[in-house]
Design goal:
The protein contains 5 helices and 45 strands. The strands form 14 sheets. Strands 35, 36, 38, 39, 41 and 42 form a 6-stranded antiparallel sheet that branches. A 5-stranded antiparallel sheet has the order 1-5-4-3-2.
C-alpha cells in the first residue's frame, strides 16, 4: 500500500528527518487526524495512560518518517518500553496509533511530494564540445528528494545521444551507446544535495559534439513518482577559440591562441598534453609540467606556469619551498614591519614604522645609519672624512700613494696611483722602480710574449706586447712578427708568391700559392694569373688567333679559343664583334654639299667598306636621334675594321703587327721605339717584360760590395725604378720619393728626373767610362711635411741588395702596400723562388720610413720604399 512512496529496491529515502528534530519536525506537517479512544473510566491512571499512548503515537510517526527517509517500509507494529505503535501508510498520509496499557491514541501527517519541493533552473546554460553545462536543481522543503530517472528531450543534429550525466561531482549515468531523446534514463538513485544550493549537474554529455543555440527539455522523476521539469536554450554561439570557454568543436580553450602551451591556436589538445577546465589548464604528460619529479628538476607542480613557486623550467623560484610529487610550493608569510623581528625581505626592524630613526617604515636601513640586532638598534654613521687631496704628501682614502707632488713618471702618478713598474711605501710615499720591462723597447722582457720595438696594435705584437691573433712572432731580443699565411684567402702573405682565392692547381697559382710554370701572376689582393706568353683572352690577336676580345667566353662573337664565331665579324684590339645577320646604323658621307651626311642602316658586310672608303662614321649622324636608325642598332663602341688596324706603340698593349710593347718608345731595353723585339732579347706579356738572352758579360764587369757597385768597363748604366711604396702612416697619403747616384764618390748636383719624384717605371740611362773602375752609390730620399729621410746604398742597415740567386725577402708591404715579392716578381725564378738576375744586374731595396736599427721587425720596416734595378749593358 506504500508503493506510491517507496521504491522496492534499496535506496536512500526521498524524505530525511533528523532524529534530533523530534517533535519539532513533526510540527512542520499538517496533522490531519487525532483521535483518542478512552477504554476506561476517567481517572488519574487513565490520564497517565493516555499521555503515554500519545507519546507512542508520535514516536511511531518519527520512526515511520525515518524509515521512509532511509528507503525502508515503516508499516507494522513498532514496540517500545511499556507500549507500541501501529503504523499504516495510505498515499501521502502516514498514521501512527500509540498503545499503552489501557489507552490508544492515533496521530496522522500528510507528507509533501518531491515534485512540489524541487526547483530546476538554467544558469548560464551553454554547450562546450559534447557537454551541456548550467542545469541546476534545488529543494525547498524535503531534506533529501531522490532522483530515480531522467529524460532529456531535444532535436538531434548529428545522431547524438546522452552518454554521461554527472551531478555534484559524481557520475550518475554512464553508457557509451547513449540514450536518445524522449527516452527515460535510469540514473543511480541520487539525493539532491543540501549544499551548495542550488546544486549543479556538472554536465550532461552527448556521444557527439553538439551545435550551440538548441532548445532542451529536462524531466526529472523522483522515487515518489512525482516529476519536475524545465526547458533550457543553449546560449552558446559559434565557438571562439581563445575566449577561455571550451565550446562546440573545441577540445580545449586556455584563453589564448598560442601554440606550444598544450592547447593549440585552433583549440585542440597538443601531443603529450592533457587539458581540462574552463579556461582550460593543460599539463604535459612528459618532462617538466607532468607532475612527476624527473632528473634535472628541482620541482614539478604539474604545470609550466611561472610565479607559483615552481617555474616553467621546473626550478624552485626565489622565496618558495617545494615538496612532493607533484610538488606543492609554499611561500613564507610576508614580513610584518614593526614587530621587532627581522624577517625575510627586511634589512632592519626596530619595532615601529617611524621614518627618520634609522629603520624606515619599509624596514630598510636609512641613509647614514647602521642597524644591528633584533629588534634592530640603529645609530647614525659618523660624517665622511674630507675628500683626499692628491699631492699633499698624505696617503688618504682612495689614494694608493702620495709623494707630495702631482708629477707623472716618478712612480706615483698625478692622480696618486702607483705607476707600472714601481712600488711605493710610506706617507709621503717613496717610490722605487722594481721592473725595468717596457713594452716597445724592442727587447722581450719578463711578462712580454713579444716586443717589436713599438706599441702599435695590428702589426702582430700588440700595444701591451702580446702576440695578436693571426700572427706568429719570433726572434730575441727583438720580435719579428708575420701573419700566419692562409693559402687560398686571396691575400699574398709570407711565403706565398701568389694567392688567387682558391687552392686549385693548373690555374697559374698552385694549391701551395706558388706561381706555376709558364704563368705570370699579378695583384696583391686575389692574384690574377695568365700564361707567361701570348694567350687567348689577353686582348691581343696573337698567332693562330682570329680575334681576342679579352675573355674566353663563347657566344659573344669571339670564342674561347679566339676564333671568330659563325655569324659574327670581329675587329680591333681587344676585338669588338658584331653580328653579320644584322643591319647597323651609321652616318653616311654623301659627298653632297647640300646634304653632306645622312643616317642610314646597312648590312654588316658593307660596314667596313663604308667606314674605310667613304669616310662614314658609326651613327646616327649629329643632330639625329636614335629613332633615325629605324630600329637597327648603332655600331658598338670600339669597333674597328679588321682590315684597318691602328696599333699605338708605347701604350703597353701588344697590337698587330707589334711583337712587343713595354709601355715606352725607348730603344735599348729589349723592345724598340717601334715596338719590335730587339736582338738578344725575349719579350713576353702585355705590357711586355723583356729579358736579355745574350751571352752574359764577363763576371768582372760589375761587382757589388756593401751597397757600392763597381763597373770595370765602359758600359751603359740603366737605372729602372720598380717600386716606390711609402705612405705617411698606414693608409695615409703617399710620400714623394727622389733618387740620386754618385759616380766615383761624387754625387750629382741634381736629383734624377729633374729633381722631381720618381715612380715605378721611371728609367734613366747614362754612359759610364770605366777607365779607373767606375763606382756607383745609389741615394734615396723621402720627404713629406716635417718628415725628411735620406739614406745611401752604403748604409747596409737601411738598404739591401739582391743579385742572381738571392732569396726573396719575405717582408710584406705595410698597410696594404706592395710586398718585396710583388716588386721584383718579373725577376724571380718561378721554379726555385729565388732571384733570376744577369751577372750585370743588381737590385737595391731601400727602407726610408723607419729606422731599421731601432725597429728591425716593425711591419713598417718593409724595404720597398724605393726599389731600383741597375743594369750595365753594352759593355766593351
Amino acid at each position: 500500500m506504500c508503493n506510491n512512496i517507496i521504491k522496492k529496491k534499496t535506496q536512500k529515502g526521498f524524505v530525511s528527518v533528523a532524529l534530533a528534530l523530534g517533535i519539532l519536525v513533526l510540527g512542520l506537517f499538517a496533522i490531519s487526524n487525532s483521535s483518542i479512544v478512552n477504554e476506561s473510566a476517567t481517572t488519574t491512571a487513565n490520564n497517565i495512560s493516555h499521555d503515554r499512548a500519545s507519546l507512542y503515537a508520535l514516536a511511531g510517526l518519527e520512526y515511520a518518517l525515518r524509515q521512509i527517509d532511509q528507503g525502508g517500509d515503516p508499516t507494522g507494529t513498532k514496540t517500545f518500553d511499556n507500549g507500541s505503535a501501529v503504523i499504516t501508510v495510505n498515499g501521502n498520509q502516514v498514521t501512527s496509533q500509540g498503545i499503552s496499557d489501557v489507552a490508544k491514541v492515533t496521530q496522522s501527517i500528510n507528507t509533501p511530494v518531491a515534485g512540489t519541493c524541487v526547483t530546476m533552473t538554467c544558469n548560464n546554460f551553454h554547450s562546450t564540445g559534447k557537454d551541456l553545462i548550467g542545469l541546476q536543481i534545488s529543494k525547498a522543503c524535503l531534506a533529501h528528494p531522490t532522483i530515480a530517472r531522467m529524460q532529456v528531450n531535444f532535436a538531434p543534429d548529428n545522431g547524438e545521444k546522452v552518454s554521461d550525466i554527472r551531478y555534484n561531482g559524481g557520475d550518475i549515468y554512464t553508457d557509451p551507446t547513449g540514450t536518445g531523446s524522449n527516452n527515460w534514463i535510469d540514473v543511480t538513485d541520487t539525493q539532491i544535495a543540501t549544499t551548495p544550493s542550488p546544486s549543479s549537474f556538472d554536465y550532461v554529455r552527448f556521444s557527439n559534439n553538439i551545435n550551440g543555440g538548441k532548445a532542451y527539455t529536462f524531466v526529472v522523476e523522483f522515487v515518489d513518482h512525482t516529476t519536475a521539469q524545465i526547458g533550457c536554450t543553449d546560449g552558446t554561439a559559434a565557438a571562439v577559440c581563445g575566449n577561455g570557454i571550451p565550446e562546440y568543436g573545441e577540445e580545449c580553450d586556455d584563453g589564448n591562441n598560442n601554440n606550444g602551451d598544450g592547447c593549440s591556436s585552433n583549440c585542440t589538445i597538443e601531443p603529450n598534453h592533457t587539458c581540462s577546465g574552463a579556461p582550460s589548464v593543460c599539463h604535459t604528460t612528459v618532462g617538466c609540467g607532468n607532475g612527476t619529479l624527473d632528473a634535472g628538476e628541482a620541482c614539478d607542480d604539474g604545470n609550466n606556469n611561472n610565479g607559483d613557486g615552481c617555474s616553467s623550467t621546473c626550478q624552485i623560484e626565489t622565496g618558495y619551498t617545494c615538496n612532493g610529487s607533484p610538488s606543492v610550493c609554499t611561500k613564507p608569510p610576508a614580513a610584518v614591519c614593526g614587530n621587532g623581528k627581522l624577517e625575510t625581505g627586511e634589512a632592519c626592524d626596530d619595532g615601529n614604522v617611524i621614518n627618520g630613526d634609522g629603520c624606515s617604515s619599509t624596514y630598510q636601513v636609512e641613509n647614514n645609519f647602521t642597524c644591528s640586532g633584533t629588534p634592530s638598534h640603529c645609530v647614525a654613521k659618523p660624517p665622511p672624512p674630507p675628500p683626499p687631496v692628491c699631492g699633499n704628501g698624505k696617503v688618504e682614502s682612495g689614494e694608493a700613494c702620495d709623494d707630495g707632488n702631482t708629477t707623472n713618471g716618478d712612480g706615483c702618478s698625478s692622480t696618486c696611483g702607483i705607476e707600472t713598474g714601481y712600488t711605493c711605501n710610506g706617507s709621503p710615499s717613496v717610490c722605487h722602480l722594481v721592473n725595468t720591462a717596457k713594452c716597445g723597447n724592442g727587447i722581450v722582457e719578463t711578462g712580454e710574449s713579444c716586443d717589436d720595438g713599438n706599441t702599435t696594435n695590428g702589426d702582430g705584437c700588440s700595444s701591451n706586447c702580446a702576440v695578436e691573433t693571426g700572427y706568429v712572432c719570433t726572434g730575441s731580443p727583438t720580435s719579428y712578427c708575420t701573419p700566419i699565411s692562409t693559402c687560398g684567402n686571396g691575400k699574398i702573405e709570407a711565403g706565398e708568391q701568389c694567392d688567387d682565392g682558391n687552392t686549385i692547381n693548373g690555374d697559374g697559382c698552385s694549391s701551395q700559392c706558388k706561381i706555376e710554370t709558364g704563368f705570370v701572376c699579378t695583384g696583391t689582393i686575389k692574384s690574377t694569373c695568365h700564361p707567361s706568353g701570348p694567350y687567348c683572352g689577353d686582348g691581343n690577336i696573337d698567332a693562330n688567333e682570329q680575334c681576342d676580345d679579352g675573355n674566353k667566353n663563347n657566344g659573344d662573337g669571339c670564342s674561347s679559343t679566339c676564333q671568330v664565331e659563325t655569324g659574327y665579324a670581329c675587329g680591333g684590339k681587344p676585338s669588338v664583334c658584331i653580328s653579320t645577320s644584322k643591319k647597323y646604323c651609321i652616318c653616311h658621307n654623301t659627298g653632297s654639299a647640300a646634304n653632306p651626311y645622312n643616317t642610314i642602316s646597312i648590312s654588316e658586310n658593307a660596314v667596313c667598306a663604308h667606314l674605310t672608303q667613304h669616310g662614314d662614321t658609326p651613327g646616327p649622324c649629329h643632330g639625329d636621334n636614335i629613332s633615325a636608325c629605324k630600329g637597327d642598332p648603332p655600331l658598338p663602341t670600339g669597333f674597328t675594321c679588321a682590315s684597318a688596324p691602328n696599333p699605338t706603340c708605347g701604350n703597353g698593349i701588344v697590337e698587330s703587327p707589334e711583337t712587343c710593347d713595354d709601355g715606352n718608345t725607348k730603344s735599348g731595353d729589349g723592345c724598340s721605339s717601334t715596338c719590335v723585339t730587339e736582338p738578344n732579347y725575349t719579350c713576353i706579356g702585355s705590357p711586355s717584360i723583356c729579358v736579355s738572352n745574350a751571352p752574359p758579360p764577363p763576371t768582372n764587369v760589375i761587382t757589388v760590395n756593401n751597397g757600392t757597385v763597381t763597373v770595370a768597363k765602359t758600359c751603359t748604366a740603366d737605372f729602372k725604378v720598380l717600386c716606390t711604396d711609402i705612405t705617411y702612416g698606414a693608409g695615409g697619403p703617399a710620400i714623394p720619393v727622389k733618387m740620386n747616384r754618385s759616380l766615383n764618390g761624387a754625387f750629382f748636383s741634381n736629383w734624377m728626373n729633374n729633381n722631381q719624384a720618381v715612380s715605378p717605371g721611371f728609367d734613366y740611362t747614362e754612359q759610364v767610362s770605366a777607365t779607373n773602375n767606375a763606382s756607383y752609390v745609389i741615394r734615396g730620399n723621402a720627404h713629406y711635411g716635417s718628415f725628411n729621410a735620406t739614406y745611401d746604398s752604403t748604409n747596409t742597415n737601411q738598404c739591401k741588395t739582391l743579385v742572381n740567386g738571392s732569396t726573396v725577402p719575405p717582408w710584406q708591404g705595410f698597410g696594404g702596400q706592395h710586398s718585396i715579392l710583388q716588386c721584383v716578381q718579373p725577376y724571380v725564378n718561378t721554379q726555385t723562388g729565388k732571384m733570376q738576375l744577369a751577372n750585370n744586374q743588381t737590385i737595391f731595396l731601400f727602407e726610408l720610413g723607419m729606422n731599421a736599427v731601432l725597429y728591425p721587425t716593425s711591419p713598417a720596416t718593409d724595404f720597398q720604399d724605393l726599389v731600383v734595378l741597375l743594369t750595365a749593358t753594352n759593355c766593351h
